[in-house]
Design a protein that fits this description.
This protein is mostly helical. The protein is 81% helix and 0% strand.
Length: 399
Amino acid sequence: MTGTDSKVGDRVPGLLRVSAALSWRFVAVVAALYVVFQVVGFLATIVIPAGVALLLAALLSPAVSQLNRAGIPRGLATAVVLVGGIAVVGGVLTFVITEFSKGLPQLQEQVSASLETIQEWLKAGPLHLSDLQLQQYLDRVVETVKENQSEITSGAITTAATVGELLTGLILALFTLIFFLHDGDGIWRFLVRIVPHDVRGRADVAGRRGFASLVSYVRATALVAVVDAVGVGIGLWIVDVPLVVPLSALVFLGAFIPIVGAVITGAVAVLVALVANGPLEALIILAVLIGVMQLESHVLQPLLLGRAVKLHPLAVVLAITTGLVVGGIAGALLSVPLLAVLNSGIRSLLSESDKGVEPREVDVLEPQESGPVDTGGDRVEDIDDSEDPTAEHSGKQQG
């Protein structure tokens, strides 16, 4: 049987053998990824808070380290940063809710006036609807609500359950964040022990490069979000749109989801301007939003993110879309940071300059200076074909 198998294998074309080998390996990789996604989905209530805690740790770790270097014990520095962060967030939320409560009556009056204007247009405009027809349409809306009362009630119950899960996730994220800030380096060193000893150093360096890119990403995204919120807020204030502060806060939160978040939250601001002030003011806010997004995409992100977290826009859009399909809003929020970490870690593993680097030499709090030294760029047009032996061999064949 062995001789027969050998003769049969010799008769199979080499291209088919290579294709078969690649195919079963590809199937194995896809199956492994499918299992990983299923496990992550099953443990979403744990994975998402841990991911959010890691993002917050990347944002707050520099402050904790600076306090520690100033002579404050690590535990006390962690407590100071956490209490300060919670106080700032609580103060901002209180201010936003207060401003929203103050501006809500004015918005209700303007919405009522806009509805009356729409009603007059329906009667005097090209549709020429009568009062009886308008009343019939309103009655249909009321009947639809009554017919779907059970679905609405179940949706409210689901929303209440979601709020409970959200509070549980926030508590878990806060608990995890405390340990990330206090002993993140020790946790990482414990995890690295599962890697084989001969490649443990490279894996350690790659992981530190990945966290450095995460620090850089969170810093840049937070600053870009502030610029977006301030720019849109100034436009809303000039046009005298109600709820300036809540809408600006919404734009700030949406900016943490690159590209998509700013568009969606900006659309909400434009819609409020349209309903409350009119089409001309809505066009002005739209122009302000477009200008802010152009400033973000062409100046802020290339300048702030730098080479440590340089991702192609197509990769960002595909990552956000995949995260949105797989994990909803949380997936869209965590997809780009995950891509940035993988990009930096893989670049470190493939970089020749990182072979002799000791893990302790990588300063994760200075991400712009801790990336691997690469001679080529990250974009497709920056790739140098002279370093590719396949391209050199192809050139010799053409010669």
